[in-house]
Specification:
605 residues; alpha+beta; seven-stranded mixed β-sheet; globular; binds zinc ion
Amino acid sequence: MPETGDVTVERARDVHSYANLDEVRVTHVELDLTVLFEERQLRAAAMLSFERVGDDADVLVLDTRDLHITAVESWSALGGFDPATYAIGMPDPVLGSPLTITLPPDATRVRVTYETSPDASGLQWLLPEQTGGGEHPFMFTQSQAIHARSWIPLQDSPGVRVTYGARVKTPDGLRAVMSAGNDPNGPLDGSYRFDMPQPIPSYLIALAVGELDFRALGDRAGVYAEPSLILAAESEFEDTAAMIEVAEQLYGPYRWDRYDLLVLPPSFPFGGMENPRLTFATPTILAGDKSLVALVAHELAHSWSGNLVTNATWRDFWLNEGFTVYIERRIVEALYGRARADMEGVLGVEALNFDLERLDSSDTVLHINLDGRDPDEGMTQVAYEKGALFLRQLEELVGRTEFDRFLRGYFNHFSFQSITTADFEAYLRENLLVTDASSSRVAVDEWLRGFGIPEGASMPSSDAFTLVEEQVAYWVGGDRTAASLEVAGWTTFEWLHFLAQLPQSLSTSQLAELDQAFELTSSGNAEIVHQWLLITIRNAYLPTRDRLERYLLDIGRRKLVLPLYQAMAETADGRSLAMNIYRQARPGYHPITANSVDAVLGWSE
Ligand SMILES: [Zn+2]
């Protein structure tokens, strides 16, 4: 139910899509997919139902990348299927190729028959030895930002929403799951049917196929994972149902029926991907103590910010991620307490500052200009953490009760729509900053279009971290040995802050002392090991070399591996070590991770 106002959504121009959205809009996609592991291909047909927006619309332009198209047909109620006239444009390195289909006057659907490339940017194919079980292959999609076009010809813009259906054929015994209705009890007979009744942007269409077990996490939540991880996943994610309840109390009903998680093999390039009804997640958050489940809160939060109210273009990405980080912290606070939310907030600001020091100033604005660039370049902590700081500032200005009311209204008003930064700004001024006095107390324009963090911004702080800093000072000052520091009861967050606060330069004996006291090298927590390895690379500490190599070979999550390569690349010795490890690791990495590491190391095949 809309709260107030006549704020309506303006049509935004998306520089990352060829689609002629002002003439034709696809409303439904019907997929027929055969999953060919040997060939690393999908053999497929996509039938697109569309509406004409412009009166004289006579072509439909779709986004594609590296698709081998074998037939294009148009369909009309009178004439059935007919071969259609079409043209495939020259490929652009970022955008791929436009597929321009001539539409007969009475046509309401088109069908494209095609095969994907073995190197499709949105697909990863894993050999059995790259999975936990080691016996069956695995494949998964990652469509955000503009990779859906590498496995489906469609209008690949977040400004257009579709419902979809799919038939998927797989080898016997494997399970296919999608960002749609999944049946955990269906037979594993190699033939699957999916329906997604809620309209979603193309970047949320997702598929995974592998040896997958399922465990329920309450009535409307559950987790899929390889058999070797299913029990660990079930216990790590046991608070998922409670998270859904907390989020609903804050922001209104969960609108996607079920919320399931899929734990992917360790090469998944991201922490998580908020595919509706089925969050894709990295196994590196299975820490054994629920200390990294903020990621689940984050992906769940996207069920409101991002999936329900969607950025209309990739330059509005902060609307997805800034809101989601803010909501993630609210869920964490409600479930695990203020102290933990504060610690996660401070760590978030530390990550933001790391990015701010390295980015061009023009890339430190929320409403970033991505013309002529890959939208993945806009996926920095600016969208996430600076966006969340802005919302935090608004909350402080009007108070939590009022701000929660505003957000509930916002999600209702724009539900199942894609909006721009300007749409948000208009809604904000009409429904929250309604008086001149309130408007003048928060510099909205500076937050949205200014560089870095506005002066006087309210920043999170953590009392627990103050105690950690005291312990660091004792040790650095030589007042105490590592073994005599007061670390009892420290959680993952205190450890991460402790490691981040250590001096840049440490001696071999200091590092050995830390490792002996705290067993950092053998920690099973992927985030703590990451921080520790960064420190040991920086100080050329040899005893962790084996652990570093194993880590980079086992894990493909970009956030965890890229900084390690970056740190190694800063010295000549480190660089040659990095090249040696990367030569072995690269075939197991997702293209998204490999592209980033390639750029750091100047790698070319
Ligand atoms: Zn997110």
